[in-house]
């Protein structure tokens, strides 16, 4: 069915562009437009775009920390409680973890903000394995960020974790946040 829709769109686009060429354009211009449109449609089909006629979807989420300050110590996982978007229901605000609803590449973004003159050390973890460090200095309101691209299998988890033994303070009020989205296979 999706292929029928694509072929129908190609036919319509070709007819429209043919009328442009007939009205004074060039064949090279027509060929370039057709090629560009075909490439756009192929990308849409491969990526599972809603416009491609496929039943694929792109999981995505954004969540912020609304409470402030949050005292963190030991193996603490912050629970970003304000869900702005949770397409595919991969993010769980009760655990602070994102669980991949489908396999593929994901882009994540993590931002932490220090609070009250306290250093803040956090890390990005995948399935319990520490991958990337974030650090915000003692300066009140300093931020640390990480933007990893990760390959996940369905069911893999990604989250922030505090691993330092010292007690530290993290700012909320929506300054600390995390988000992620599915890129493709």
UniProtKB/TrEMBL annotation:
<dbReference type="Pfam" id="PF00386">
    <property type="entry name" value="C1q"/>
</dbReference>
<keyword id="KW-0732">Signal</keyword>
<feature type="domain" description="C1q">
    <location>
        <begin position="54"/>
        <end position="185"/>
    </location>
</feature>
<dbReference type="GO" id="GO:0005581">
    <property type="term" value="C:collagen trimer"/>
</dbReference>
<dbReference type="InterPro" id="IPR050392">
    <property type="entry name" value="Collagen/C1q_domain"/>
</dbReference>
<keyword id="KW-0964">Secreted</keyword>
<dbReference type="InterPro" id="IPR008983">
    <property type="entry name" value="Tumour_necrosis_fac-like_dom"/>
</dbReference>
<dbReference type="InterPro" id="IPR001073">
    <property type="entry name" value="C1q_dom"/>
</dbReference>
<protein>
    <recommendedName>
        <fullName>C1q domain-containing protein</fullName>
    </recommendedName>
</protein>
<feature type="signal peptide">
    <location>
        <begin position="1"/>
        <end position="23"/>
    </location>
</feature>
């Amino acid at each position: 069915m999706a292929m029928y829709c694509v072929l129908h769109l190609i036919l319509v686009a070709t007819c429209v562009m043919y009328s442009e060429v007939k009205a004074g354009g060039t064949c090279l211009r027509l060929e370039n437009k057709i090629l560009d449109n075909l490439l756009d449609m192929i990308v849409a089909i491969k990526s599972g775009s809603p416009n491609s006629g496929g039943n694929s979807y792109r999981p995505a989420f954004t969540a912020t920390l609304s409470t402030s300050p949050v005292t963190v110590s030991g193996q603490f996982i912050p629970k970003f409680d304000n869900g702005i978007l949770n397409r595919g229901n991969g993010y769980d605000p009760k655990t602070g973890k994102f669980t991949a609803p489908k396999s593929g590449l994901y882009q994540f973004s993590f931002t932490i903000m220090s609070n009250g003159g306290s250093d803040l050390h956090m890390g990005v973890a995948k399935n319990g394995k520490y991958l990337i460090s974030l650090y915000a200095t003692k300066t009140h309101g300093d931020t640390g960020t990480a933007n990893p691209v990760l390959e996940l299998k369905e069911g893999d988890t990604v989250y922030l974790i505090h691993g330092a033994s010292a007690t530290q303070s993290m700012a909320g009020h929506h300054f600390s946040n995390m988000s992620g989205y599915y890129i493709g296979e």
